[in-house]
Write a structure and sequence with these properties.
Mal/L-sulfo/L-lacto_DH-like_sf; binds nicotinamide-adenine-dinucleotide; Mal/L-sulf/L-lact_DH-like_ah; Mal/L-sulf/L-lact_DH-like_NADP; Oxidoreductase YbiC; oxidoreductase; 40% helix; four-stranded mixed β-sheet; 364 residues; alpha+beta
């Protein structure tokens, strides 16, 4: 990534809260959204961090994203609950859905919480971390409604979104094990970065408008459009398809098809079905020791000294440590986009200039 700027995390959080305040969010909403976006940057997932702000402001202007709304319960069956996100900020709707799911898992030992019609819920690992912090395992199936970017295995055009899948396993005294990724071979954001740098993407990530393999990221940004392919060929496609069904259909929301295609690229709607399990309900008194033994075992595989073997979630943990100490790197284009969005949201130019300059002072 082009590390044009390093930004001060707390000051950047304040700037984002202020942008949302000027856009019309109540303080609690502004805080939840800023918390989520900053956490994504700190974890190293810049594609789902503060760089989303210009797109959120456009979605608001276009009448898709609705401010100061909340998720509402559509059906409550005890351990299974379905919520409508009411086009609210996903950072609010998913926070409410997962908080309710955790409460249900405390009561019943396990819970399923389904959320539909929510605006973008961002980095899914954040919701898993909310479950892990409460001591629970969670499994998340997510679809992106009506925004095709990914081709089915063997297909020649895009038919569904980058449908993320996520699993978290809490550990005693250590950060949780966290699987959290899009089911496309690479994230859409990575094609944008490569496109702007004029660089090719690795083999096996893209097809062009004729359905032929290509390394040229322009096929995702200029007409005629190509498509991303799923990771791990048919295996990734099968997982993406089940994320679509478990996330979109089972949640009471929509899958991607002709009747659900979105008119706007900025209006990102997610559905998520989450299963939350209390590990104490299992007859597994050695679960933590067994987990630790496995982690140590895989880490002992012969490897090069400068590339240690990581376990899922460790990459994010390492980024957090580094970025809390050194600030958040951001490319100049994304930073300019955020500062321009601040003014579009209603922030006076002089205040935007002052907060921008504050964020760029990175003495931590
Ligand atoms: N809301 C949405 O619509 C949406 C859509 C797609 C993706 N996303 C989010 O985008 C983010 C980025 O997705 P991505 O596909 O680019 O993720 P990615 O390719 O960076 O993979 C991340 C996963 O790989 C693990 N990992 C990384 N290096 C590792 C190593 N050396 N050893 C073991 N595990 C390792 C990480 O811990 C994490 O679980 C995710 O947080 C995802 O939830 C959201």
């Amino acid at each position: 990534m082009d590390t044009g700027f390093r930004l001060h995390p707390q000051r950047l959080h304040h700037f984002i809260e202020k942008i949302l305040h000027y856009a019309g969010s109540e303080p609690q909403e502004a805080r939840l959204v800023a918390d989520h976006l900053l956490a994504a940057n700190l974890a190293g997932h810049d594609s789902h961090g503060v760089g989303m702000i210009p797109s959120y402001v456009r979605s608001l202007e276009q009448g898709y994203l609705q401010l100061n709304r909340h998720a509402s319960v559509v059906k409550d069956m005890g351990a299974v609950v379905t919520l409508n996100g009411n086009q609210a900020f996903g950072q609010v709707a998913a926070h409410e859905a997962i908080s309710l799911g955790i409460e249900k898992a405390r009561q019943h030992g396990l819970a399923a919480v389904a959320l539909h019609n929510s605006h973008h819920i961002g980095r899914i690992g954040y919701w898993a971390e909310q479950c892990a912090a409460a001591g629970f395992i969670s499994i998340h199936f997510v679809n992106v409604v009506g925004d095709p970017m990914v081709a089915p295995f063997g297909g020649k055009d895009s038919r569904f979104g980058t449908n993320p899948f996520c699993v978290v396993f809490p550990r005693e005294g250590q950060s949780p094990l966290l699987l959290d990724y899009a089911t496309s071979a690479i994230a859409f954001g990575k094609t944008r970065v490569a496109y702007h740098k004029g660089e090719p993407v690795p083999d096996g990530c893209l097809i062009d408008a004729q359905g032929l393999p290509t390394n040229d990221p322009a096929v995702m940004h200029r007409s005629p459009l190509g498509a991303l392919v799923t990771f791990a060929q048919h295996k990734g496609y099968a997982l993406a398809a089940l994320c679509e069904i478990m996330g979109g259909a089972l949640s009471g929301g929509q899958t991607t098809h002709q009747g659900s295609l979105q008119a706007s690229v900025d209006a990102i709607f997610n559905c998520m079905t989450t299963i939350i399990l209390n590990p104490d309900m299992f007859a597994a008194p050695d679960m933590q020791q067994q987990t630790q033994a496995f982690v140590e075992w895989v880490k002992q595989s012969p490897h090069s000294n400068d590339e240690p073997i990581l376990v899922p979630g460790e990459w994010e943990e390492n980024n957090r440590r580094l970025r809390k100490a050194q600030g958040i790197p951001l490319d100049p284009g994304s930073w300019q986009g955020i500062c321009a969005a601040a003014v579009r949201a209603g922030m006076p130019q002089d205040e935007a200039d002052r907060l921008q300059a504050d964020c760029e002072q990175v003495t931590l």
